[in-house]
Write a structure and sequence with these properties.
Elements: H1 3-11, E1 16-19, H2 29-38, E2 44-49, H3 61-68, E3 75-80, H4 84-93, E4 98-102, H5 110-118, E5 122-127, E6 145-149, H6 163-174, E7 180-184, H7 192-197, E8 202-205, H8 207-210, H9 215-234
Parallel strand pairs: 1-8, 2-3, 3-4, 4-5, 5-6, 6-7, 7-8
Bound molecules: D-xylitol-5-phosphate (DX5) and zinc ion.
């Protein structure tokens, strides 16, 4: 496990479509992972909820650990929990390659970002729809990934909040090319292009993959849409 090299490998594969395991079939986890391998998902996104930071419960490090031996796909934990520092060792031990926590959950994100990197994982910082970019600006250099929530965290299947677009544009201007810019919530065929155009290169997708019959096709389509939006964003005259 090596933080920067995982990020480097992921940067080479952008746009990244990260299936949100919150929306998968929990009665068939083994099968879901196999299907996502076949679909060539570049990483798996695990939404961890504690019923306190967000009004929902999901799963924790034990479940992630139990899936780790099934695949070599990088794992990303999205911690929607209070006291992420308390539980960090569990997620590192479970084999998470990236760990993202929320700025709203900690008094100072710096020590935790550094702990994650020191442990050899990649460090991500997430911000809720109501949190301004300025809240994380001082620590952007310490982040391998910045995640913009485009829904209120807690549940899959919600409608995309367009205010996330300005935030992505703002962050894109502030971060370096070695930082992944991620968007999470309500991403699907109708919304992915605008987020790619705004600078996102990492897209967390639940419903628009797991509510379809063919994960591979869903991922490929989303990836294509994101790639062509990113290309036209770089050449606006086309
Ligand atoms: C919401 C989670 C998301 C969510 C995505 O709190 O962070 O990852 O499961 O699901 P969709 O794509 O259905 O919005
Ligand atoms: Zn998430």
């Amino acid at each position: 496990m090596n933080g920067p090299s995982v990020v480097q490998r992921l940067l080479d594969k952008t746009p990244l479509i990260a299936p949100s395991m919150l929306k998968c079939d929990f009665a068939n986890l083994h099968r879901e992972v196999a299907l996502l391998e076949r679909a060539e998902a570049p990483l798996l996104h695990f939404d961890v909820m504690d019923g306190h930071f967000v009004p929902n419960l999901s799963y924790g490090a034990m479940l992630i650990r139990s899936l780790r031996s099934l695949t070599d796909i990088p794992f990303e934990a999205h911690l929607m929990i209070s006291e992420p520092d308390r539980y960090l060792p569990d997620f590192l031990d479970a084999g998470c390659d990236l760990v993202t926590f929320h700025i709203e959950a900690v008094p100072d994100p710096l020590p935790l970002l550094r702990r994650i990197r020191k442990a050899g994982a990649a460090a991500g910082l997430a911000l809720n729809p109501g949190t301004p970019v300025e809240a994380i600006e001082p620590v952007l250099a310490e982040c391998d990934l910045v995640l913009v929530m485009s829904v209120q965290p807690g549940f899959g299947g919600q409608a995309f909040l367009p205010a996330a677009l300005d935030k992505l544009r703002h962050l894109k201007r502030l971060i370096g090319p070695e930082t992944l810019l991620s968007v999470d919530g309500g991403i699907g065929p109708d919304t992915i292009s605008s987020t790619a155009d705004a600078g996102a290169c990492h897209f967390v997708v639940g419903s628009a993959i797991f509510d379809t019959a063919d994960y591979r096709e869903a991922i490929e389509r989303l990836q294509l849409a994101a790639a062509s939006a990113a290309v036209s964003a770089r050449s606006p005259t086309e």
